[in-house]
Design brief:
Elements lengths: L2 H26 L5 H20 L2 H6 L5 H9 L5 H25 L18 H23 L8 H20 L5 H11 L5 H22 L42
Length: 259
């Protein structure tokens, strides 16, 4: 069991959600156009992602902070089933902790604004489709960037930029979650689980769709790295083909001695 990595995902997801909810709180105090509010919220969630991915937390665990992302890497055979389940548990738990911290710190005018909900004027089927597609595209973006030695270190930046753009374009329709942990975190604290199944189903469909499309587009190749900050020295639990993989799985006696 790779407890250090699981703890990093727990703390990383908590930070990501706390920073994102900080943006929602600040927006609740403003009277601006909706697209400006969505832009600010997207920026804060993006900053939360960036802060984790390029920190020691992300360099150790990969900075997934999203069950859909971890599931997609598992589908590619780059994570064991045990590690994937542990990551997902850590991500959901971290999201709840991050949401709780945000509710404890800020005096919310209306806490319900933190929930990820379908737009009132849109059918639920459209919401499901939108969430599936934008989750799929997020994961494809990650897979594409981490598979290039030239752009690999920009993966976190690319994903963050995508989050901002998608939030502006689709938040009014579906809430632009793209992360079931983010949706669950605030729902669990507020005990408001209506529509949550839509986001869970969309995230899994998006993860599977991204896996299939990347596999087909790459001729069956897997992403070459499973860390959003790209290759880093030190322990690594992932089953990639890079020079830093498998370090966590080797017992001390099995590691080659430099003497």
């Amino acid at each position: 069991m790779n407890w250090t990595e699981y703890f990093c995902e727990f703390i990383g997801t908590a930070i990501h959600l706390f920073v994102g909810l900080t943006g929602i709180f600040l927006v609740s105090l403003l009277t601006t156009a909706a697209f400006v509010q969505y832009f600010i919220i997207g920026v804060f969630f993006a900053l939360g992602l960036l802060a984790v991915v390029y920190s020691p937390l992300g360099k150790r665990s990969g900075g997934h902070i999203n069950p859909a992302v971890s599931t997609a890497f598992w589908l590619n055979g780059l994570m064991s089933g045990v590690d994937t389940i542990a990551y997902i548990i850590a991500q959901f738990s971290g999201a709840v902790f991050g949401a709780w911290a945000a509710f404890a710190l800020f005096n919310w005018p209306n806490p319900m604004t933190t929930l990820t909900l379908p737009g009132m004027d849109y059918p639920l089927l459209l919401v499901l489709v939108v969430e599936t597609v934008i989750t799929l595209a997020l994961i494809l973006t990650i897979f594409t960037f981490v598979s290039s030695n030239r752009s690999g270190k920009l993966t976190g930046i690319a994903a963050s930029g995508y989050i901002i753009l998608t939030t502006v374009l689709f938040a009014a329709i579906s809430g632009a979650s793209m992360n079931p942990a983010r949706t669950f975190g605030t729902a669990a604290v507020l005990l408001q689980f209506r529509f949550i199944l839509i986001y869970f189903v969309a995230s899994m469909l998006g993860a599977y769709g991204a896996y299939m499309l990347f596999r087909k587009g790459s001729g069956g190749a897997k992403p070459t790295c499973s860390k959003l900050c790209h290759k880093t020295k030190g322990p690594c639990l992932f089953k990639c083909e890079c020079e830093f993989s498998h370090n966590c799985e080797l017992p001390p006696a099995a590691k080659k001695s430099p003497f």
